[in-house]
Protein backbone atom coordinates (compact mmCIF):
# COMPACT_ATOMS: atom_id res chain seq x y z
CA UNK A 1 0.00 0.00 0.00
CA UNK A 2 2.99 2.25 0.56
CA UNK A 3 4.72 4.22 -2.18
CA UNK A 4 8.50 4.54 -1.91
CA UNK A 5 10.46 7.30 -3.66
CA UNK A 6 13.87 6.04 -4.71
CA UNK A 7 16.81 7.08 -6.84
CA UNK A 8 17.91 4.63 -9.50
CA UNK A 9 21.20 3.63 -7.94
CA UNK A 10 22.64 0.23 -7.18
CA UNK A 11 22.01 0.62 -3.49
CA UNK A 12 18.43 1.88 -3.90
CA UNK A 13 19.08 4.94 -1.71
CA UNK A 14 15.91 6.51 -0.43
CA UNK A 15 15.66 10.29 -0.73
CA UNK A 16 13.72 10.71 2.51
CA UNK A 17 14.40 7.40 4.23
CA UNK A 18 11.62 5.03 5.25
CA UNK A 19 9.11 7.71 6.16
CA UNK A 20 5.81 6.95 7.85
CA UNK A 21 7.29 4.16 9.96
CA UNK A 22 5.71 4.79 13.37
CA UNK A 23 4.78 2.19 15.94
CA UNK A 24 1.20 3.40 16.40
CA UNK A 25 0.62 2.90 12.67
CA UNK A 26 1.77 -0.71 12.93
CA UNK A 27 -0.62 -1.25 15.86
CA UNK A 28 -3.82 0.65 14.96
CA UNK A 29 -4.06 0.06 11.20
CA UNK A 30 -4.01 -3.78 11.35
CA UNK A 31 -6.80 -3.70 13.97
CA UNK A 32 -8.92 -1.47 11.69
CA UNK A 33 -8.18 -3.75 8.72
CA UNK A 34 -9.33 -6.71 10.79
CA UNK A 35 -12.59 -4.98 11.74
CA UNK A 36 -13.18 -3.99 8.11
CA UNK A 37 -12.56 -7.59 7.05
CA UNK A 38 -15.03 -9.13 9.51
CA UNK A 39 -17.79 -6.53 9.06
CA UNK A 40 -17.37 -6.39 5.28
CA UNK A 41 -17.30 -10.16 4.75
CA UNK A 42 -20.40 -10.72 6.91
CA UNK A 43 -22.36 -7.77 5.50
CA UNK A 44 -21.66 -8.39 1.82
CA UNK A 45 -22.15 -12.15 2.18
CA UNK A 46 -25.58 -11.47 3.66
CA UNK A 47 -26.43 -9.23 0.70
CA UNK A 48 -25.40 -11.91 -1.81
CA UNK A 49 -27.27 -14.66 0.09
CA UNK A 50 -30.50 -12.67 0.49
CA UNK A 51 -30.58 -11.59 -3.16
CA UNK A 52 -29.83 -15.12 -4.37
CA UNK A 53 -32.26 -16.92 -2.07
CA UNK A 54 -35.22 -14.55 -1.78
CA UNK A 55 -35.13 -11.36 -3.83
CA UNK A 56 -33.77 -12.75 -7.12
CA UNK A 57 -32.17 -10.84 -9.99
CA UNK A 58 -35.27 -9.42 -11.64
CA UNK A 59 -34.50 -5.71 -11.38
CA UNK A 60 -31.62 -3.50 -12.51
CA UNK A 61 -30.97 -2.21 -9.00
CA UNK A 62 -30.66 -5.72 -7.57
CA UNK A 63 -28.12 -6.69 -10.24
CA UNK A 64 -25.97 -3.62 -9.49
CA UNK A 65 -26.19 -4.20 -5.73
CA UNK A 66 -25.20 -7.86 -6.16
CA UNK A 67 -22.19 -6.97 -8.32
CA UNK A 68 -21.21 -4.27 -5.84
CA UNK A 69 -21.26 -6.82 -3.02
CA UNK A 70 -19.22 -9.33 -5.04
CA UNK A 71 -16.71 -6.59 -5.88
CA UNK A 72 -16.29 -5.75 -2.20
CA UNK A 73 -15.88 -9.43 -1.30
CA UNK A 74 -13.12 -9.96 -3.88
CA UNK A 75 -11.15 -7.15 -2.30
CA UNK A 76 -11.90 -7.92 1.36
CA UNK A 77 -10.19 -11.31 1.11
CA UNK A 78 -6.87 -9.47 0.66
CA UNK A 79 -7.21 -7.42 3.87
CA UNK A 80 -5.60 -10.07 6.15
CA UNK A 81 -2.45 -9.87 4.01
CA UNK A 82 -2.36 -6.06 4.18
CA UNK A 83 -2.97 -6.25 7.94
CA UNK A 84 0.00 -8.62 8.31
CA UNK A 85 2.09 -6.37 6.05
CA UNK A 86 1.43 -3.34 8.27
CA UNK A 87 1.66 -5.15 11.61
CA UNK A 88 5.12 -6.49 10.72
CA UNK A 89 6.48 -3.00 9.99
CA UNK A 90 5.80 -3.05 6.23
CA UNK A 91 7.45 -6.44 5.77
CA UNK A 92 5.84 -8.47 2.95
CA UNK A 93 6.25 -12.23 3.48
CA UNK A 94 3.86 -13.46 0.77
CA UNK A 95 6.01 -13.22 -2.36
CA UNK A 96 5.83 -11.10 -5.51
CA UNK A 97 2.80 -12.81 -7.08
CA UNK A 98 0.52 -12.07 -4.12
CA UNK A 99 2.05 -8.59 -3.89
CA UNK A 100 0.98 -7.81 -7.45
CA UNK A 101 -2.37 -9.61 -7.09
CA UNK A 102 -3.34 -7.94 -3.82
CA UNK A 103 -2.36 -4.48 -5.07
CA UNK A 104 -4.26 -5.10 -8.30
CA UNK A 105 -7.38 -6.24 -6.43
CA UNK A 106 -7.22 -3.15 -4.20
CA UNK A 107 -7.26 -0.70 -7.13
CA UNK A 108 -9.66 -3.00 -9.01
CA UNK A 109 -12.13 -2.73 -6.12
CA UNK A 110 -11.72 1.05 -6.03
CA UNK A 111 -12.85 1.32 -9.65
CA UNK A 112 -15.57 -1.36 -9.61
CA UNK A 113 -17.14 -0.04 -6.38
CA UNK A 114 -17.28 3.54 -7.59
CA UNK A 115 -18.45 2.54 -11.07
CA UNK A 116 -21.26 0.36 -9.66
CA UNK A 117 -22.29 3.15 -7.28
CA UNK A 118 -22.37 5.50 -10.26
CA UNK A 119 -24.40 3.04 -12.34
CA UNK A 120 -26.82 2.59 -9.45
CA UNK A 121 -27.20 6.38 -9.13
CA UNK A 122 -27.93 6.74 -12.84
CA UNK A 123 -30.45 3.89 -12.64
CA UNK A 124 -32.20 5.55 -9.68
CA UNK A 125 -32.31 8.84 -11.60
CA UNK A 126 -33.88 7.17 -14.64
CA UNK A 127 -36.32 5.13 -12.50
CA UNK A 128 -37.57 8.13 -10.50
CA UNK A 129 -37.32 11.09 -12.88
CA UNK A 130 -37.97 9.32 -16.23
CA UNK A 131 -39.70 6.03 -15.33
CA UNK A 132 -41.70 5.63 -18.54
CA UNK A 133 -39.14 6.80 -21.10
CA UNK A 134 -36.31 4.80 -19.54
CA UNK A 135 -38.23 1.53 -19.26
CA UNK A 136 -36.84 0.07 -22.50
CA UNK A 137 -33.26 0.82 -21.40
CA UNK A 138 -33.64 -0.37 -17.81
CA UNK A 139 -33.81 -4.09 -18.55
CA UNK A 140 -32.02 -7.04 -16.99
CA UNK A 141 -30.06 -7.66 -20.20
CA UNK A 142 -28.76 -4.08 -20.38
CA UNK A 143 -27.91 -4.22 -16.68
CA UNK A 144 -25.76 -7.32 -17.13
CA UNK A 145 -24.07 -5.79 -20.19
CA UNK A 146 -23.27 -2.71 -18.10
CA UNK A 147 -21.84 -4.90 -15.34
CA UNK A 148 -19.59 -6.78 -17.77
CA UNK A 149 -18.31 -3.49 -19.22
CA UNK A 150 -17.59 -2.18 -15.72
CA UNK A 151 -15.66 -5.32 -14.75
CA UNK A 152 -13.60 -5.23 -17.97
CA UNK A 153 -12.90 -1.48 -17.80
CA UNK A 154 -11.89 -1.68 -14.12
CA UNK A 155 -9.63 -4.64 -14.90
CA UNK A 156 -7.85 -2.68 -17.65
CA UNK A 157 -7.38 0.29 -15.32
CA UNK A 158 -5.86 -1.97 -12.62
CA UNK A 159 -3.33 -3.66 -14.93
CA UNK A 160 -0.74 -0.82 -14.66
CA UNK A 161 -0.73 -1.20 -10.86
CA UNK A 162 0.03 -4.90 -11.23
CA UNK A 163 2.91 -4.11 -13.60
CA UNK A 164 4.50 -1.43 -11.40
CA UNK A 165 4.06 -3.06 -7.95
CA UNK A 166 7.14 -5.05 -6.98
CA UNK A 167 8.87 -6.67 -4.00
CA UNK A 168 12.12 -4.97 -2.96
CA UNK A 169 14.52 -5.23 -0.03
CA UNK A 170 15.21 -2.09 1.99
CA UNK A 171 17.39 -2.33 5.12
CA UNK A 172 16.73 -6.08 5.47
CA UNK A 173 12.97 -5.53 5.07
CA UNK A 174 11.07 -7.06 2.13
CA UNK A 175 8.45 -4.54 1.01
CA UNK A 176 5.61 -4.60 -1.54
CA UNK A 177 5.91 -1.13 -3.04
CA UNK A 178 5.62 1.11 -6.08
CA UNK A 179 9.02 2.58 -6.89
CA UNK A 180 9.08 6.20 -8.04
CA UNK A 181 12.35 6.40 -9.99
CA UNK A 182 14.35 9.49 -10.79
CA UNK A 183 13.83 11.39 -14.02
CA UNK A 184 16.23 9.03 -15.83
CA UNK A 185 13.43 6.62 -16.72
CA UNK A 186 10.92 8.94 -18.36
CA UNK A 187 8.55 6.23 -19.61
CA UNK A 188 8.07 4.67 -16.16
CA UNK A 189 7.69 8.06 -14.53
CA UNK A 190 4.99 9.03 -17.04
CA UNK A 191 3.19 5.71 -16.43
CA UNK A 192 3.16 6.28 -12.65
CA UNK A 193 1.91 9.82 -13.18
CA UNK A 194 -0.87 8.55 -15.46
CA UNK A 195 -1.87 5.95 -12.83
CA UNK A 196 -2.13 8.65 -10.15
CA UNK A 197 -4.16 10.96 -12.38
CA UNK A 198 -6.56 8.16 -13.38
CA UNK A 199 -7.05 7.23 -9.74
CA UNK A 200 -8.01 10.81 -8.91
CA UNK A 201 -10.14 11.52 -11.99
CA UNK A 202 -11.75 8.19 -12.94
CA UNK A 203 -11.60 6.77 -9.43
CA UNK A 204 -13.24 9.67 -7.66
CA UNK A 205 -13.82 13.09 -9.22
CA UNK A 206 -15.80 12.17 -12.36
CA UNK A 207 -18.00 9.52 -10.65
CA UNK A 208 -18.62 11.83 -7.70
CA UNK A 209 -19.82 14.63 -10.02
CA UNK A 210 -22.16 12.18 -11.78
CA UNK A 211 -23.52 10.83 -8.47
CA UNK A 212 -24.11 14.30 -7.02
CA UNK A 213 -25.80 15.47 -10.25
CA UNK A 214 -28.12 12.43 -10.33
CA UNK A 215 -29.16 12.78 -6.69
CA UNK A 216 -29.71 16.55 -7.01
CA UNK A 217 -32.03 15.94 -9.96
CA UNK A 218 -33.81 13.17 -8.01
CA UNK A 219 -34.31 15.45 -5.00
CA UNK A 220 -35.64 18.22 -7.23
CA UNK A 221 -38.12 15.82 -8.86
CA UNK A 222 -39.28 14.48 -5.48
CA UNK A 223 -39.72 17.95 -4.06
CA UNK A 224 -41.78 19.00 -7.09
CA UNK A 225 -43.95 15.87 -6.71
CA UNK A 226 -44.41 16.54 -2.98
CA UNK A 227 -46.18 19.84 -3.67
CA UNK A 228 -48.89 17.92 -5.55
CA UNK A 229 -49.10 14.75 -3.43
CA UNK A 230 -48.89 15.85 0.18
CA UNK A 231 -49.78 12.37 1.46
CA UNK A 232 -46.49 10.89 0.24
CA UNK A 233 -44.38 13.14 2.49
CA UNK A 234 -43.28 10.39 4.89
CA UNK A 235 -42.26 7.98 2.11
CA UNK A 236 -40.50 10.78 0.23
CA UNK A 237 -38.54 11.66 3.38
CA UNK A 238 -37.43 8.04 3.75
CA UNK A 239 -36.14 7.94 0.18
CA UNK A 240 -34.40 11.30 0.58
CA UNK A 241 -32.67 10.09 3.74
CA UNK A 242 -31.42 6.98 1.95
CA UNK A 243 -30.09 9.00 -0.97
CA UNK A 244 -28.41 11.44 1.41
CA UNK A 245 -26.82 8.54 3.33
CA UNK A 246 -25.44 7.04 0.12
CA UNK A 247 -23.83 10.30 -1.02
CA UNK A 248 -22.54 11.11 2.48
CA UNK A 249 -20.98 7.65 2.91
CA UNK A 250 -19.29 7.88 -0.47
CA UNK A 251 -17.96 11.36 0.29
CA UNK A 252 -16.73 10.72 3.85
CA UNK A 253 -15.03 7.44 2.97
CA UNK A 254 -13.09 8.59 -0.08
CA UNK A 255 -12.35 12.32 0.30
CA UNK A 256 -9.62 12.00 2.99
CA UNK A 257 -7.73 9.43 0.91
CA UNK A 258 -8.06 11.49 -2.27
CA UNK A 259 -6.75 14.62 -0.53
CA UNK A 260 -3.58 12.88 0.64
CA UNK A 261 -3.31 11.09 -2.69
CA UNK A 262 -3.28 14.51 -4.39
CA UNK A 263 -0.49 15.70 -2.06
CA UNK A 264 1.38 12.50 -2.86
CA UNK A 265 0.93 13.31 -6.54
CA UNK A 266 2.54 16.73 -5.96
CA UNK A 267 5.48 14.98 -4.26
CA UNK A 268 5.74 12.64 -7.22
CA UNK A 269 5.83 15.64 -9.59
CA UNK A 270 8.48 17.21 -7.30
CA UNK A 271 6.25 20.24 -6.78
CA UNK A 272 6.64 19.50 -3.07
CA UNK A 273 10.14 18.46 -1.95
CA UNK A 274 10.01 18.29 1.81
CA UNK A 275 10.80 15.18 3.84
CA UNK A 276 8.62 16.43 6.72
CA UNK A 277 5.55 16.69 4.48
CA UNK A 278 6.37 13.31 2.92
CA UNK A 279 6.53 11.74 6.37
CA UNK A 280 3.13 13.24 7.25
CA UNK A 281 1.62 11.89 4.03
CA UNK A 282 3.14 8.42 4.45
CA UNK A 283 1.93 8.33 8.07
CA UNK A 284 -1.61 9.50 7.29
CA UNK A 285 -2.07 7.45 4.10
CA UNK A 286 -2.68 4.07 5.86
CA UNK A 287 -5.42 5.67 7.99
CA UNK A 288 -7.09 7.29 4.97
CA UNK A 289 -6.94 3.91 3.22
CA UNK A 290 -8.68 2.37 6.25
CA UNK A 291 -11.47 4.94 5.96
CA UNK A 292 -11.76 4.41 2.20
CA UNK A 293 -11.96 0.64 2.59
CA UNK A 294 -14.65 1.04 5.23
CA UNK A 295 -16.90 1.98 2.30
CA UNK A 296 -16.97 -1.74 1.48
CA UNK A 297 -18.64 -2.26 4.88
CA UNK A 298 -21.03 0.70 4.52
CA UNK A 299 -22.38 -0.31 1.11
CA UNK A 300 -24.50 -3.25 2.40
CA UNK A 301 -26.00 -1.00 5.08
CA UNK A 302 -26.86 1.86 2.76
CA UNK A 303 -28.15 -0.17 -0.19
CA UNK A 304 -29.55 -3.19 1.58
CA UNK A 305 -30.31 -3.04 5.27
CA UNK A 306 -32.29 0.22 5.08
CA UNK A 307 -35.08 -1.64 3.26
CA UNK A 308 -37.77 -3.27 5.37
CA UNK A 309 -38.17 -6.06 2.83
CA UNK A 310 -34.46 -6.80 2.93
CA UNK A 311 -34.46 -6.97 6.72
CA UNK A 312 -37.45 -9.31 6.60
CA UNK A 313 -35.70 -11.63 4.15
CA UNK A 314 -32.50 -11.43 6.16
CA UNK A 315 -34.36 -12.71 9.22
CA UNK A 316 -35.81 -15.53 7.10
CA UNK A 317 -32.29 -16.41 5.97
CA UNK A 318 -30.95 -16.44 9.54
CA UNK A 319 -33.86 -18.65 10.61
CA UNK A 320 -33.22 -20.94 7.62
CA UNK A 321 -36.79 -20.44 6.40
CA UNK A 322 -37.53 -22.00 3.00
CA UNK A 323 -38.18 -19.84 -0.03
CA UNK A 324 -41.90 -20.41 -0.40
CA UNK A 325 -43.54 -19.61 -3.72
CA UNK A 326 -46.02 -17.18 -2.29
CA UNK A 327 -45.66 -14.69 -5.07
CA UNK A 328 -42.96 -12.35 -6.25
CA UNK A 329 -40.90 -10.54 -3.62
CA UNK A 330 -40.36 -6.81 -4.01
CA UNK A 331 -36.83 -5.78 -4.81
CA UNK A 332 -34.42 -3.82 -2.65
CA UNK A 333 -35.52 -0.68 -4.44
CA UNK A 334 -39.26 -1.40 -4.31
CA UNK A 335 -40.08 1.75 -2.38
CA UNK A 336 -38.05 3.86 -4.77
CA UNK A 337 -39.65 2.22 -7.81
CA UNK A 338 -43.16 2.79 -6.48
CA UNK A 339 -42.24 6.34 -5.66
CA UNK A 340 -40.89 6.89 -9.15
CA UNK A 341 -44.34 6.29 -10.69
CA UNK A 342 -46.00 8.63 -8.20
CA UNK A 343 -43.35 11.24 -8.88
CA UNK A 344 -43.76 10.91 -12.63
CA UNK A 345 -47.54 11.16 -12.30
CA UNK A 346 -47.18 14.28 -10.21
CA UNK A 347 -44.74 15.81 -12.67
CA UNK A 348 -47.04 15.02 -15.59
CA UNK A 349 -49.94 16.63 -13.73
CA UNK A 350 -47.80 19.72 -13.31
CA UNK A 351 -47.04 19.84 -17.02
CA UNK A 352 -50.70 19.33 -17.92
CA UNK A 353 -51.86 22.02 -15.54
CA UNK A 354 -49.37 24.48 -17.00
CA UNK A 355 -50.46 23.59 -20.54
CA UNK A 356 -54.14 24.05 -19.72
CA UNK A 357 -53.46 27.39 -18.09
CA UNK A 358 -51.56 28.50 -21.21
CA UNK A 359 -54.52 27.54 -23.41
CA UNK A 360 -56.90 29.48 -21.23
From TrEMBL:
<dbReference type="GO" id="GO:0009897">
    <property type="term" value="C:external side of plasma membrane"/>
</dbReference>
<feature type="transmembrane region" description="Helical">
    <location>
        <begin position="142"/>
        <end position="163"/>
    </location>
</feature>
<dbReference type="InterPro" id="IPR000190">
    <property type="entry name" value="ATII_AT1_rcpt"/>
</dbReference>
<dbReference type="GO" id="GO:0019722">
    <property type="term" value="P:calcium-mediated signaling"/>
</dbReference>
<dbReference type="GO" id="GO:0019957">
    <property type="term" value="F:C-C chemokine binding"/>
</dbReference>
<keyword id="KW-0297">G-protein coupled receptor</keyword>
<comment type="similarity">
    <text>Belongs to the G-protein coupled receptor 1 family.</text>
</comment>
<feature type="domain" description="G-protein coupled receptors family 1 profile">
    <location>
        <begin position="43"/>
        <end position="303"/>
    </location>
</feature>
<dbReference type="GO" id="GO:0004945">
    <property type="term" value="F:angiotensin type II receptor activity"/>
</dbReference>
<dbReference type="InterPro" id="IPR050119">
    <property type="entry name" value="CCR1-9-like"/>
</dbReference>
<keyword id="KW-0325">Glycoprotein</keyword>
<feature type="transmembrane region" description="Helical">
    <location>
        <begin position="201"/>
        <end position="223"/>
    </location>
</feature>
<dbReference type="Pfam" id="PF00001">
    <property type="entry name" value="7tm_1"/>
</dbReference>
<feature type="transmembrane region" description="Helical">
    <location>
        <begin position="62"/>
        <end position="83"/>
    </location>
</feature>
<keyword id="KW-0472">Membrane</keyword>
<keyword id="KW-1003">Cell membrane</keyword>
<comment type="function">
    <text>Receptor for angiotensin II, a vasoconstricting peptide, which acts as a key regulator of blood pressure and sodium retention by the kidney. The activated receptor in turn couples to G-alpha proteins G(q) (GNAQ, GNA11, GNA14 or GNA15) and thus activates phospholipase C and increases the cytosolic Ca(2+) concentrations, which in turn triggers cellular responses such as stimulation of protein kinase C.</text>
</comment>
<feature type="transmembrane region" description="Helical">
    <location>
        <begin position="103"/>
        <end position="122"/>
    </location>
</feature>
<feature type="transmembrane region" description="Helical">
    <location>
        <begin position="283"/>
        <end position="306"/>
    </location>
</feature>
<dbReference type="InterPro" id="IPR017452">
    <property type="entry name" value="GPCR_Rhodpsn_7TM"/>
</dbReference>
<feature type="transmembrane region" description="Helical">
    <location>
        <begin position="31"/>
        <end position="55"/>
    </location>
</feature>
<keyword id="KW-0807">Transducer</keyword>
<keyword id="KW-0812">Transmembrane</keyword>
<keyword id="KW-1015">Disulfide bond</keyword>
<dbReference type="GO" id="GO:0019229">
    <property type="term" value="P:regulation of vasoconstriction"/>
</dbReference>
<feature type="transmembrane region" description="Helical">
    <location>
        <begin position="243"/>
        <end position="263"/>
    </location>
</feature>
<dbReference type="InterPro" id="IPR000248">
    <property type="entry name" value="ATII_rcpt"/>
</dbReference>
<keyword id="KW-1133">Transmembrane helix</keyword>
<keyword id="KW-0675">Receptor</keyword>
<dbReference type="GO" id="GO:0007204">
    <property type="term" value="P:positive regulation of cytosolic calcium ion concentration"/>
</dbReference>
<comment type="function">
    <text>Receptor for angiotensin II, a vasoconstricting peptide, which acts as a key regulator of blood pressure and sodium retention by the kidney. The activated receptor in turn couples to G-alpha proteins G(q) and thus activates phospholipase C and increases the cytosolic Ca(2+) concentrations, which in turn triggers cellular responses such as stimulation of protein kinase C.</text>
</comment>
<dbReference type="GO" id="GO:0001596">
    <property type="term" value="F:angiotensin type I receptor activity"/>
</dbReference>
<dbReference type="GO" id="GO:0006955">
    <property type="term" value="P:immune response"/>
</dbReference>
<dbReference type="GO" id="GO:0016493">
    <property type="term" value="F:C-C chemokine receptor activity"/>
</dbReference>
<protein>
    <recommendedName>
        <fullName>Type-1 angiotensin II receptor</fullName>
    </recommendedName>
</protein>
<dbReference type="InterPro" id="IPR000276">
    <property type="entry name" value="GPCR_Rhodpsn"/>
</dbReference>
<dbReference type="GO" id="GO:0030593">
    <property type="term" value="P:neutrophil chemotaxis"/>
</dbReference>
Amino acid sequence: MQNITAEETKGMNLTCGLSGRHQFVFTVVPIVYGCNFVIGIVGNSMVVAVIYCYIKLKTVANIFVLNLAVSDLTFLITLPMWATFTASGYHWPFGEFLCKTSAGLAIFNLYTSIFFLTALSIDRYLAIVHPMRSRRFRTVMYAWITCVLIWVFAFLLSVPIVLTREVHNFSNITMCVILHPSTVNYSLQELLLAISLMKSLLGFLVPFIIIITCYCLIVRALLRARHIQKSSRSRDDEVLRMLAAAVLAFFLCWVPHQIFHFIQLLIQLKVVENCGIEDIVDTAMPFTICIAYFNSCVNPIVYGYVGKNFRKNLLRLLRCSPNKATGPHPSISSKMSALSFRASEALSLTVKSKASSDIK
